[in-house]
Amino acid sequence: MEYSRGRFLQPHTHPSILPTISPEKARKFIDQNEAELHFLLLAIYISMGDSKETRFAFGQNWADFLKGISEERILDAENSLKSMLAREELKGLQILDIGSGSGLFSLAAHRLGAQITSFDYDKDSVACTQKIKEQFAPDSNWQIEEGSVLDQAYLEKFQQFDVVYSWGVLHHTGSMWQAIMNAADKVKPRGQFFIAIYNKHWTSIIWKGIKWFYNTSPSFVKSTMNQVFTLIIFLWLLVSTGRNPLKLERGMDFKHDVIDWIGGYPYEYASIDELDQFLAKRGFKRTNLKKPYGWTGCNELVYTLVPQK
Length: 309
Known about the structure:
This protein has a domain at about 60-200 and about 270-305: Rossmann fold, CATH 3.40.50.150. The protein is built from 12 helices and 7 strands. The protein has helices at about 25-30, 35-45, 60-65, 70-85, 105-110, 125-135, 150-155, 175-185, 205-215, 220-240, 255-265, 270-280, and strands at about 95-100, 115-120, 145, 160-165, 185-200, 285-290, 300-305. It has a 7-stranded mixed beta sheet with strand order 3-2-1-4-5-7-6, with helices on both faces.
């Protein structure tokens, strides 16, 4: 998607005092100094009390999302799975949902015939997944646990699966590449690995700072940021895509997506090429891709584990 080449910083002083910064110059500066900027941000975080425990409360957001769950949203989730996995049903398949969140996609996979195992690091998210199971599939053998994709001892108890699914999760672990590798290890030969990872863009490092600020701010600041960014993102999506931002795909909800986007921290990102190269070294071949509407949204990627000859 092309961005406007107009000015995004319009100084009110004389140009010789504060020169205009174009998006192209900003992008080039960030690309050339990315490592230094990351180090500077890290130093700021440490000096202001940041730690690995600075995290967004994903489960609380999902709990509020589940208040609006409907048959239409469940069907949208089912259609998303069928489209990306290129399957009309999942009957007989064993699927691992890493970071199940609301439990919506575990439920969708269950309704499509799969045997589901779900786990999440966040206790509130585990409770959400339990709740949606009790509401829509109380008698199923759907297994739900609390666990971390970074805990290799925990993962060792699982066999390999026909499909490993982790949408918008692995980049929030604080150790994205390790998380991707651990998750990929749970895929059977000829199995599918369906992930969604934030796209790498020159604005990504700016968003990392915004997300950190959000999570270290008091409640009234978070509330104000939610309102301001909801309006900004709504207008930007409306103008840039021509689509109604309130009509989302995958059974999602605009309000809760915006809160998740602003607050989602820890936050990492990767380009499609970086992901392809990383997973190709582990025997995976990309078989499907859906790019985001915006610069830094999630790329949805499906890989197949090609058996070694």
